[in-house]
Amino acid sequence: MYKVLSFATGVALCMSACQQPTKTNQPEESNTPQVTLQQVNVPVFQTDSAYDYTAKQVSFGPRIPKTPAQEKCATWLISKLKPLADTLYVQRTTVTAPKNAQLPCINIIASFNPQATQRILLLAHWDTRPHADQDAFDRTKQLDGADDGASGVAVLLEVARQLHAQKPTAGIDILLTDVEDSGVSEDENSYALGTQYWARNPHVSGYKANYGILLDMVGGRASQFFMEGGSQQYAYGPMKMFWDVANRLGYSDYFRYENIGAAITDDHVYVNTIAKIPTFDLIALQQNGNFVPHWHTSNDNMAVIDKRTLQVVGQTLLEVIYRQPFEY
Questions:
Q1: N or C, which end of the chain has less CB nearby within 10 Å?
Q2: 64 — phi, psi (to 5°)?
Q3: Coil, strand or helix: which one is 96?
Q4: Which of 214, 188, 190 is nearest to 275 (CA)?
């Protein structure tokens, strides 16, 4: 997945594109409301299930738009979510990629507890970058996209399974977006085409959520998650809540509070700026602000996927959904 990376020492491209300053205006700690934890039994995230969901997506081959793998994987995703969701929506459209390429796009939305007015949007892209443009030797290779795409989807599939088994009080919408990774670096808006389409054409007219969480590259071994700059700009409150929950659960090695100054153009930008839903990006980065080494290389395969990372992300997500979905 191509993402524009910049740092607080300059003007972050993500913020520039959104006509916002790079500097994050974070609320004072004294203004943070008292958290009241709900007394509920939080489901246990089944790590083996999430790992198997990741492997299954990879087994279809690279999920590149306009290939048989795209349709096969979409069919499988729909078959997994349909019996779990209260309502399932499928958006089929055509989007215009660089060089005026017309690409089929399949967005899949699973809605849980649809009558609830307080809602959380969970999203991840399920397509694969067409080529390993960061590979050291052959940048024309295709890649499996095990972490960049499949891991986030796998976590959300397992979350969906738990939502079906134990109904939450909050409304939850899981959005799996297509054609995220077919863009070119010369035009950052050529990425996240499925998300841009959904933001302008939501599955429910006038759809709103209290906030959103984007899962992108959440399965790599020894991953670390820092507070991305654009997320701080638009969704600092719910993002800090998520980090606080993760640290309370003992996952401080994964969820770090250090400000590394990185801002990224990713799906959350368009949810924030077009759909106007405060959304933060949960994405693995290195402490120097660079992407993880397997990003956009042929090394992004099942060998980098770690069950512990999947468990840390998934269990934190379930804890937030069931115990304190709106306490921020």
A1: C
A2: -90, 135
A3: strand
A4: 214
